[in-house]
Structures are given as structure tokens and as C-alpha cells.
Amino acid sequence: MRAERDALRAQLEQTQAQLNAVSQAKAALEAQLAETRKQLEELKASYDKLSGQYTDAQRTIADLQARLSELQQRYDELSKAEQQLREQYYSLSAKYSELNGRYDELSKAYEEARRNLEMLQNRYSELNTGFTWALNTATALGIALLFVIALFFSRKRVQPAPAPAQPPATARGAVIIEEKPKENLVKWPATAE
After folding, report:
1. Rounded Cα–Cα distance for residues 140 and 143 (Å)
2. Looking at the DSSP assignment, which residues form a beta bridge with residue 175?
3. Of the N and C termini of the chain, which has fewer Cβ atoms inside 10 Å?
């Protein structure tokens, strides 16, 4: 009995030691479990935060993609408009060059016509001056000629007439008096001067 009791006591002590070891291991595991739960809660909170950020990031990416699509469409439209404006610019540039050439030609023709007009005006002034001088000279010569003709006719008429004969007596003794010829006045021609 004593030997069996000692054997049981030894087993009991061994079991108590094992129990103590298990209790210590359990306490360590409980501490590790609490730490793990704490880490899990922190990871869960981080996950929720990252999940919200991921959702926001996805929303931002979707908005940016829509904006990018809109900008791409506007870029394509602006590219087409730029091409059309470039073609229009080239066309207008060609027309401008053509009109510039025609303007230069017209400017040269205008300058030549202006020089010709000045020459014609100078020639007209010369001819007008010569014509006026010739007209004045002809007028003066005409007046002088008329003056000479009038003077010639007036001298011819002013010559003394022969002495009148005695008037014949009439049957009744009346004397017939002859009338002297009337002098004609010479009218000089009117001139512009």
C-alpha cells in the first residue's frame, strides 16, 4: 500500500507538474490569443480604412477615365478644327499672295496712269496757254483789221464834196435846197476785252 501510495504521489506530482506546465502554456497561449485578437482588430480597422480608400480610389479612377475620355474627344475635335483652319490658312495665304501680286500690278499701272495723266495735264496746260495766246492774238489782229477797214471807209466818206450848183429857179421863184448827205457812224465790233 505504501509503495502504491508513493507511486500514486509521484504520478500526482508529475501530473501536477504537467498541469502547471499546461496552465503556463495556456496562459501564454491566452496572452498570444489576446495579442492576436488585438492585431486582428487593428488589421480589420486597417482593412476597412484601406477598403474605403480603395473604393474612393476606384471612384476617382472612374471619374478620371470619364474626364480622360471627354478630353480625348475634345482633343480629336480640336485636331480636326486645327486641320481645317490650317487648310483654310493655306488657301487664304495663296489668295493673299495672288491678290498681293495683282495689287502690285495695279499699283504699277496706277502710277503709270497717274504719270500719264500728269503729262496730259501739263500738255493740256501748254496747249491751253498756246490756244489762249493764239486766240488773243487772232482777236487783236481781227480788231486791228476791223479798225483799219473802218478807218479806210470813214476816210473815204469824209472826202469834201464838190461845191453845189446854184439851185434852179422854179416857175414861181422858189428855191430848192438840197439836203446834205447824212454821216453814217461806224460801230466798232464788241470784243471780250
Report:
1. 5
2. 169
3. N
pLDDT: which is higher, 12 or 165: 12
Out of 25-39, 53-67, 91-105, 140-154, pick the least confident: 140-154
DSSP sequence for the chain:
-HHHHHHHHHHHHHHHHHHHHHHHHHHHHHHHHHHHHHHHHHHHHHHHHHHHHHHHHHHHHHHHHHHHHHHHHHHHHHHHHHHHHHHHHHHHHHHHHHHHHHHHHHHHHHHHHHHHHHHHHHHHHHHHHHHHHHHHHHHHHHHHHHHHHHHHHHHHHHSPPPPPPPPPB-TTS-BPPPPPPPPPPPPPPP---
Q: Which amino acid is at 142?
A: G
User: At 2, which amino acid appears?
Assistant: R
Contact 119, 151 (CB under 8 A): no
pLDDT tens-digit map of 147-170:
888 888 887 665 555 555 555 544
What confidence tens digit (pLDDT) does each residue in 42-85 have? 999 999 889 889 999 999 999 999 999 999 999 999 999 999 99
What are the distances in angstroms from CA 124 to CA 114, 117, 121, 139, 164? 15, 10, 5, 21, 65
Given a contact cutoff of 8 angstroms between Cβ atoms, the answer to whether 182 and 157 are in contact is: no
Predicted structure pTM score: 0.36
